[in-house]
Amino acid sequence: MGASLSSLTENESTANGRPGLGDIPENCVACVFMYLTPPEICNLARINHAFRGAASSDAVWDSKLPSNYRHLLDVLPHRIYDGLSKKDIFAFLSRPVPFDDGNKEVWLDRISGRICMSISTKAMLITSGEDRRHWNWFPTEESRFHVVAYCQQVWWFEVSGSVKFPFPPDIYTLTFRVHLGKFYKRLGRRFCNFEHTHGWDLGPVRYELFTSDGKHAVSEYSIHDSDQDDASANIKRGNWIEYKVGEFIVSRSDPATEVRFSMKQIDCTHSKGGLCVDSVLITPSDLKARRRKGVSKYQ
User: Fold this and answer.
1) More confident residue, 67 or 80
2) Of 47-61, 177-191, 207-221, 223-237, which range is least confident?
3) What DSSP line would sit under 70-93, residue for residue?
4) In this predicted model, what pLDDT tens digit does every residue of 171-187 receive, in sequence order?
5) Region 143-162: what's the mean pLDDT?
6) CA–CA distances in Å: residue 201 to residues 32, 60, 223, 243
7) Is the whole-model pTM more than 0.85?
8) What are the pLDDT digits (tens) for 220-254?
9) DSSP string of 120-137, one letter each residue
């Protein structure tokens, strides 16, 4: 079997006259590659010259890029991508592309070529965020933006933001990434401090999103403080948690879709604190399975 596979991958026909993979025309290989994922294409490119040539074809990679991929390039200096092939553009956009002073990032999923986005808390509005008695910032490698907002103690908790972007047509999910307690490293080990963690068990946090075309989603979750996994929510104390706000549908890229989102707990009968807020993540809804927590409703 090994010998047969070896002969099939040779560029020339086999000695007994039977055709090998090297005899397949490059344009035919390119047509097949259009139905494969980028990792599959890159793996097959190692087989022979025809496969390598097809794997570099602009026609193949144009089918993997979103229809409005140039909007992603528009946030970059032209000199960075001038003269790049479609394959190189895909590889470039598969890495996070920062914009809005580096407080937002957009990238292509390497398997599907679909757009994902992350928005730092630095790009959001935080009620009393300038008052160091209530909020402060600390650097960490656990955030893609290398800094997170830490709520020490507030009565009115509200974090909100927005983004306007020509998202390709798709169904997207928006989530907040938060962490109960303050974490730090000592002698290479990770520790969490829950000294200021309080008040979150006394009422749910409300999450909302609005889009420029009238979509509205609302979710409410209680932020748990548990020493062990919760059977229904799989929440573990000291870990980052993604709370799903809701979904929104984009039917066309032009005009650009504006998304406004918020996270709030404004019951002023009690204070709350000891919570890190890192970012908001926007991804295609079926890109990965997400575990739903709490009660969610979509309007």
Assistant:
1) 67
2) 223-237
3) HHHHTTS-HHHHTT--HHHHHHHH
4) 999 999 999 999 888 88
5) 96
6) 55, 52, 7, 16
7) no
8) 998 865 443 444 344 567 889 999 999 999 998 88
9) EGGGSEETTTT-TTTEEE
How far is 286 from 171, CA to CA, in rounded Å? Answer: 8
What are the distances in angstroms from CA 82 to CA 47, 77, 132? Answer: 30, 9, 45
Note every long-range contact of 205-208, with CB atoms under 8 Å and residues 24 or more positions apart, other chains counting: 205/157, 205/243, 205/263, 205/264, 205/265, 206/263, 206/264, 206/265, 207/176, 207/243, 207/244, 207/245, 207/246, 207/261, 207/262, 207/263, 208/245, 208/246, 208/261, 208/262, 208/264
**In Å, what is the CA distance from 267 to each residue of 177, 197, 202?**
22, 17, 9
Amino acid at 130: E
207-225 b/e with 16+ CB inside 10 Å = b?
bbbbbeeebebbbbbbbbb
Distances (CA, A) of 74 to 59, 71, 155, 278, 285: 21, 5, 42, 26, 25
